[in-house]
């Protein structure tokens, strides 16, 4: 065997050895990488490759470095989650994170949520039925990005909470984040203030009516006794007739007041249907056309969004807008502007503006109180009745602005 043949055999052996060694090294590398990926997917970092062992010390060091980076990131993420968890446990707002795919499984809740609801740890929304069935229904059906209120009874008293919900993605899952606050104290304070204002107004109205009746009755009683003692002399029939007319007039005013009060306490439930706001305003303009023309004013309508549709009681809505137009004319308005639009939260807004006399800051705080009025012949129930109607529609009416330039009331339908 000559030298070239031996050399060829040696080269072949070396190439074969290189291929075998390379294949073994590749298999080991592939095995180590696969093992590492599987471990990291399971969040397991308790492994380490020997860095001084042939044939892959450099590769082992690289894998260990990657493992260390992942371990550090996982530790930082854990500490961050603990930080956010502690932060959420120290706020007064209750938080529920609910898995949307599992139909009610509670992934997370903070301590405030349990304190507000008066419950032990909650794993599923079904557990809320132990407190109140309507509470469970409210949490299951709350719409996204809209406020909702719910009341329930615990062992001590009645609780009212304000709730909002939003969609998010957590750990690859679609979840709903429900935030809620106990507003019982705010509601009670607001209710107490409303009752105090109502009692003051009732006292004012009733006393203004009863006082002249009582005074005249006492005067007539003394006059009649004196006339009887004098055989009917010194009895002023004209004065007596005038006094009885005053009593009759005051009694009628009191009856009117009571009827107005009854109208406030007996607001009919709305019969809702879908209609275009443009059609509603056309109807209102027809109803108020004569009074607007007689006052020398003008009225206009602008639709800022295309084809604004409202689902409400058309009759009650017409009554509210007509009342706002009447108030504007009584304030000396020369121009009344009505507009409608749909905002970014898909709420329908109807604004009624006028250039009449502005509402004072003091009156602005009272105008929705029943029977409060600054007008000589006003009943003081128009705006209060309007607010009740809007509440029955789950909406609101607010005085958005009132100054020398413009006064604007806005109806918001949620």
Strand and helix order? HHEEHHEEEHHEHEEHEEHHEE
Radius of gyration: 39 Å
Averaged pLDDT:
78
Counted beta strands: 12
Based on secondary structure, the structural category is alpha+beta
Proportion in β-strands: 15-25%
Strand order of the largest sheet: 2-1-5-4-3
Oligomeric state of shown chains: single chain
Low-confidence segments, given as residue ranges, are none
Helices, by number, come to 10
- Please bin the fraction of helical residues: 40-55%
Largest sheet: 5 strands, antiparallel
Please report the distance between the alpha carbons of the first and last residues: 99 Å
Write down the overall geometry.
elongated
Report on the structure:
The protein is of the alpha+beta class and 414 residues long. It has 10 helices and 12 strands. The chain has helices spanning 3-41, 57-89, 111-117, 133-141, 184-229, 237-265, 277-294, 314-330, 361-364, 382-392; strands at residues 94-99, 105-109, 148-153, 158-170, 173-182, 273-276, 298-303, 309-312, 335-342, 348-354, 395-402, 407-413. The strands form 3 sheets. A 5-stranded antiparallel β-sheet has the order 2-1-5-4-3. Strands 7-9-10-12-11 form a 5-stranded mixed β-sheet, covered by helices on one side. A hairpin with a 5-residue loop joins strand 9 (335-342) and strand 10. Helix 1 packs parallel to helix 2 and helix 8 (314-330) packs antiparallel against helix 10 (382-392). It is elongated, with a radius of gyration of 39 Å.
